[in-house]
Structures are given as C-alpha cells and as structure tokens.
Amino acid sequence: MHHMTRHLTLGAMAIAIAIAIAAMTQPASAARPVAPRATDHVVVMVFDQMRPDYIDRFGLANFKRLRASSRNYSEAYVGHLSSQTVVAHIVIPTGLRPGALPWMDDVLVDVDGAIGKPGLAYSTGKLTRQQASQMLQKIPRDQFLPARIQDTLGGKVFAVGEKDYAAAFLGGPYASSIVTMKSCAPDGVNVPDYIQSNRRFTVDCTPDYGTNYPTIYAIDGNRYVPGTDPTRLGGDAWTADVAIEIMNREAWSGLFLTFGGIDKIAHMLGEQDDRGLTSVSSEYRLADVLRIADEQLGRVLAALDSRGLTDRTLVVVTADHGGQKDDYYLGNNGDQTCCALENVQSAKPVPYWLDHLNRIAPGKLRTAYAATSLTLWLSDHSPAVETTLTRGLKDVSGITEIYALRHSGNVYRYEQVFSALASQPPRFRNWAQKHSAELMATMAGPAAPDLVGLLADGVGFGRIGDHGGAQELVQRIPMLIRVPGEAASRRATPLRLMDLAPEITKILGLKPAPTTEAARLVK
Q1: How far is CA 394 from the centre of its chain?
Q2: Is the dihedral of CA 237, 242, 245, 251 positive or negative?
Q3: Residue 94, CB half-sphere, CA atoms under 13 Å: how many?
Q4: What is the rounded distance in angstroms from the CA atom of residue 375 to the CA atom of residue 453?
Q5: How many CA atoms lie within 13 A of 67 on its CB side?
Q6: Cross-strand bridge partners of residue 378
Q7: CA atoms within 13 A on the CB side of 127
Q8: 347: Cβ contacts below 8 Å, ≥ 6 apart
Q9: Is the CB of residue 273 less than 8 Å from the CB of residue 61?
C-alpha cells in the first residue's frame, strides 16, 4: 500500500498548500462581509455504504471540515426498504418511496410488462440502459431533480460514478450527461469527448490485490480502487477527476457524484465494526478506501473554492445505505435468487434457506432476494401458500419479523404476521418497534414482494459485509448539507433519503415535484 498512500498523501498536501497560498494572497477587503450571491450550483455526493460514525473513528479530515460548516442531520437514516444501492440512487433524485418506483430491491418483477412479458423477474443492476430507461419513463420528468435543476438554474447536470448502474440511476433519464465505466473505460450517456478520448480515464482491470477468492466480492482491477499508475488512477479518484474535468470545461449547474470504493471493500471484508476477514490478504482495507474517499471529497471542495463557486454552491454529502458485518451468514457470495432471472443465469447452488422454502412449497416462489432482509415474490397468492411460506421463513436463522403484502383495489400495505422481537436485545427491539412498520410501508405497491422477513443485527445472507434491511447500522447514514451563507448547525430532524430532493428543491427555489411521497409518510 505504500505506493498508493504516498501518491495520495502528496496529492492531499498539494491541495492543502494551494488553499493556504490562496488564503494568504486574498486582499484585505475579501474578509469584509459581502452581499450574498445566488445559490446557482448544487453538488450531491453519495458515498456508497458510508456510515456517519466512520468520520470520527477513522479521522476523516475533509468530512469533519464539511460537517463543521454544514447542517449536520445527526439522526439521519435511509428511511426506506430495501436499503440497497439500486433503490437509493432513484429515491435520492426523485424523492419517491420505493413502492412508487419500478423496483424496490436488487431483483424486480415487471408486473406491467414494461420491458417484456408481464410478470417476468430481472436482476435490477443488470438491466440494459434501454430497459432501465423504459421502466423509468413511468415517472414524470418533473419528478426528477436533475430535470428541475436544469429548468430553473439553466446549466447542465452531470451524473458521474465508477459504479455504472449507480451513476445511471442517480442521473436518471434527464441528466445532460452520465459518465461511468464499462470494462474499466469511460461509458454512459452523452459522455464528453474530452473524457471519452482521454487515456487517463481508461484504467487497468487486471489486478486483484490479493483477493482472488471465488467466495468473496473480490477486487476486479482498478474500477473501485486507485491502483498504482498515478496517470490513470481508478476508483473514487477517477470519479473526482471526471467531476473536476467537467468543472473545468462546462457551464454546469448540477453534479451528482457517486463514489463506490467504500462499498466494494466493506462488502468484501466485513470490516464495518472489527477487523473483518483477516484471512484475505487484500492490499486495500476499509481504512484505506475511507482515506481515499475523504481525499476525493477534499479535492471536489477545493475545486469549487478555486473557481469562486463555494459561496454559490449547495453541497450535499450522504450515503445510499449503511452496513454491517454478517456474523451469521447463510449466503452464497451474493447469489440469492431462487429462480432463473430473465437477464441473469446462475450455476451456483441454492443456499440452504431458499432450498428449504422450495422444498416446502415447490414451484410457488416467483423469485426471491436476500441481504440483511429476505424478500419473496410468490407465483401462487393463495392463503395456503402464504401460510406455508410464512411458516418456512420462521425456521430461517435470525428472523425477527415477517410482513405480508395486502391490498384493496389500488391501496397497498404490509401487515405484520410474525414477531420475535421479544427475544431481541432492548436496543434492537426499541429501534424495530419505532421503525419497522414505517420502513415496510415505503415498499408497499403493486410490484412489491409478497413476503418480507426482517433479520436481527449481524444476520444477513447477501455478503459478509452487508446491507438491504432495517437494522440500525444498515439504516444509519451521514447527511451533511452546506448552504451558502448559513451558519453550521446540528439538527435533530431525522432526515431520510426521501426527504433530500424536497429539501434541495426548497433551498434552491426550484419548481416543486408533482408528487412529494416523503411528506405523506412523515410521522
């Protein structure tokens, strides 16, 4: 790691020196109060699987600095289920709850047949660009924050990130440009030529950094980590470099940036709260990718400052979900579907819990997915099948609650049909009693899973480092909003990801979205 640390440390020193010199060379008049300028830019930065406690635990200087000048929503949480990347990156720009979206988990059932025969099941993250666009066309244009930013502020809006579907969903159908990676080269929608043709933005996909194990979420080249070539850094450094290049060349009003490095290593090693998988000889650990992410945050903020945009730019820093280490794990390296999906085929053996459900109700599961919760879609909705599968879910390790989907006409809701909360520790029980029903309500809709099993702390069946469910560690996220001209404050409001688009809309004075689902769900 010495080569990478030395390169990034020197980069951070250069930024600090440049900022210090700029401050010393400001004229005396710059210190006097000046009339506030219009806030006409917004930068939204999503650090995938970032937890708020990491800021102090790992001494992240740039996160601390931003927190000290921002609204710090210390009680913020995801606020919806499933708490997954593919869901949150649509919730953030629309403000809609998952039940009002085309999907609400890493697998989806296309109820209306928007991209094929009605009722077919797909892996959400493997949708083609055309398929995703077709499904998102169900949502009105004015529901998307990038569209309304362009309409009001006038400049272009860019979505950038090394994780392809995260960047595509965060920008949505109406971003001016989406810049991401495919096969470690620039890809996306309306990718500027100065990115596409620049060799700097094609990175090496070959190194595994000591993680070549088929049973873990191994590092696949420099897509999520910087690597050793200072002229072609990957991972979060790649995302920051693309963003800064756009700042240099474009008349922009919005940057939606998603950084995937933390998520990659946290999934792989499960180091969220302890040393994780020490048997894996990875050159990158969680502490390394957190420092890298912190440096990229500093670089983006410094770029705004050097361009005189700091007092004109609303800065939002958050995460799509938190994460936990799964101490009790019945997974199969992320392969949790019971049945073939239309766009993914798997030869992996079915994990125990799915095999168990298939045995007691053969042919009755349409599809299923698991992370730190279990979601089941049924092909047979009879009461007898629901009862059988509910009984089977009770046998699965770590189940604390089971909810069943109910509907009357177009009104959907979840009903709790099983609870083992009485046997859980007080802190877990208190969190669940306060939030489980609220979180479940966000999923309810025509394409929602028929049965959902919530799991205890430290239990998950997706990966060793995991998310997706209702546990507090999985739900807790940072939420920092720096408003130009506004003093820093710590706010007790439990802001959720659904609340973010309405809050940005209010601060920037944008035309309101046609639907504000979040407002209807606030207690």
Answers
A1: 30
A2: negative
A3: 26
A4: 7
A5: 20
A6: 365
A7: 29
A8: none
A9: no
> Nearest 5 degrees, angle CA 152-CA 153-CA 157?
110
Question: Helices 145-153 and 85-94 meet at what angle, rounded to 10?
Answer: 30
- 474 within 8 A of 83, measured Cβ to Cβ: yes
Q: Dihedrals φ, ψ of 477, to 5°?
A: -140, 155
Query: Which is it for strands 489-491 and 71-73: parallel, antiparallel or unpaired?
Result: parallel
> SS3 of 452, please?
strand
Give the C-alpha separation, 132 to 104, whole Å: 13
Domains along the sequence of the chain with CATH: 40-101+139-323+475-521 (3.40.720.10), 352-462 (3.30.1360)
Residue matched to tokens 């959907």: 412
Terminal-to-terminal C-alpha distance of the chain: 48
User: For 198-311, where are the E strands, in sequence order?
Assistant: 252-259
Closest C-alpha to 79, from 508, 427, 502: 502
The residue type found at 250 is: E
Distances (CA, A) of 477 to 15, 26, 422, 434, 496: 27, 37, 27, 17, 9
pLDDT tens for each residue of the chain, 523 residues long: 444 443 444 344 444 434 343 333 333 333 333 334 599 999 999 999 999 999 999 999 999 999 999 999 999 999 999 999 999 999 999 999 999 999 999 999 999 999 999 999 999 999 999 999 999 988 999 999 999 999 999 999 999 999 999 999 999 999 999 999 999 999 999 999 999 999 999 999 999 999 998 878 899 999 999 999 999 999 999 999 999 999 999 999 999 999 999 999 999 999 999 889 989 999 999 999 999 999 999 999 999 999 999 999 999 999 999 999 999 876 666 665 667 789 987 767 778 888 899 999 999 999 999 999 999 999 999 999 999 999 999 999 899 999 999 999 999 999 999 999 999 999 999 999 999 999 999 999 999 999 999 999 999 988 899 999 999 999 999 999 999 999 999 999 999 999 999 999 999 999 999 987 654 443 3
3-class state of residue 411 by DSSP: strand
Query: Do β-strands 465-466 and 324-325 pair in parallel, antiparallel, or remain unpaired?
Result: antiparallel
